[in-house]
Amino acid sequence: MAEHASDRRRLVRAAMNAPYLEREEEHDLAVRWREQGDEAALHRLTAAHMRLVIAMAAKFRRYGLSNADLIQEGHIGLLEAASRFEPEREVRFSTYAAWWIRAAIQDYVLRNWSIVRGGTSSTQKALFFNLRRIRARLAQQMGNIGEAAIDREVAATLGVSVGDVAAMGARLSGPDASLNAPLYDRDEASGERQDALVADQIDVDEAVGATIDGERRLRWLDEALTVLDERELKIVRERRLAGDGETLETIGRRLGISKERVRQIEARALEKLRSALLARQPDRAAFV
Predict the structure, then answer these.
(1) In a domain, 1, yes or no
(2) Which of 23, 78, 87, 246 could lock onto 30 through a cystine, CB 3.0 to 4.6 A?
(3) CB-based contacts of 94: which residues, under 8 Å, 6+ apart?
(4) In the structure, what pLDDT confidence band is assigned to residue 129 with cuts at 50, 70 and 90?
């Protein structure tokens, strides 16, 4: 830890002591790097702008990330700027590099501020980095108009939906909470927070048990059906085992008997099934 702090201080001192570049010298270094691949020129160009990286990284310290990591990401953005810079456009390298440095640091913050990945579109970035500031400014300008009204103003200002504003506000309102943390503060005996989550799917043990029970009941039914005669079996299958059971009248018309007679045969067949099931295994009473 002390070694990392020492390296960080050394980096900051080197950046602050690096000489400023005049416009002509900056242009010459950029041309040498772009056209000749002169790494010494690249080093001088980027070293002279590391103070810009450090200053930019300091603006993002409130997100709770390591300053050294923010500087490192900003340095990557600086190198990206150097690889894309076009000296012939006659703009200062610092002006061009500032955008790439900021973008690299913002991407790093979005990736690491929370274990829950947020949107990385330009509008989502603007919402993430500006929501608190805009909310505070609107509250000061508009007075006590309510959070919902302020969120509508923020949405209009940034060109996002009110739902996006509310969702981002919820994300920024507190840190991530581990699902493995105790359900009640410091009370490990209470179980973990994940234990209180409601599962969308049936428990695996219950699912397996239900499958086994279903197969067992089908086997019992197949065995019991053997005690029925042909007409009883036909009526039971069409009335009780088909997807949409046939009516007594329909079955009676098909068999050439009255619907009352069909009802009597069905009742007798069901009683025979019940007796057959209980005779083979009395503990099947719950099933029948």
Answers:
(1) no
(2) 87
(3) 49, 52
(4) confident
Distance between CA atoms of residues 249 and 262, nearest Å: 8
Q: Predicted confidence band at 163 (pLDDT cuts at 50, 70, 90)? A: confident
Give the separation between CA 49 and CA 262, rounded to whole angstroms: 95
Q: Write out the two tokens for 168.
A: 């981002």
Residues 10, 92: one domain?
yes
Q: Tell me the CA distances in angstroms from 33 to 27, 51, 179, one per residue in order.
A: 10, 20, 50
| 16 part of a folded domain | yes
Local confidence band at 201 (pLDDT 50, 70, 90 cut-offs) = low
Contact 132, 172 (CB under 8 A): yes
Overall pTM surpassing 0.85 (yes/no): no
Q: Which of 6, 91, 104, 7 is nearest to 52 (CA)?
A: 104
Which is nearest to 55 in space by CA: 94, 5, 24?
94
Alpha helices in 18-62 (DSSP H): 23-36, 39-47, 50-58
- Domain of 259, CATH number, reads 1.10.10.10
Specify the length of the chain in residues.
Answer: 288
93: pLDDT confidence band, cut at 50, 70 and 90? very high
What are the start-end ranges of the E strands in 168-216? 182-184, 187-192
3-class secondary-structure state, position 179: coil
Digit-coded pLDDT (tens) for 202-242: 666 777 777 777 787 788 778 778 888 888 888 888 888 77
Is the CB of residue 271 less than 8 Å from the CB of residue 227? no
* Residue 197, in any domain of the structure: no
Domain interval for residue 84: 6-112
CATH of the domain at 19: 1.20.120.1810
- 281, 230: one domain: yes
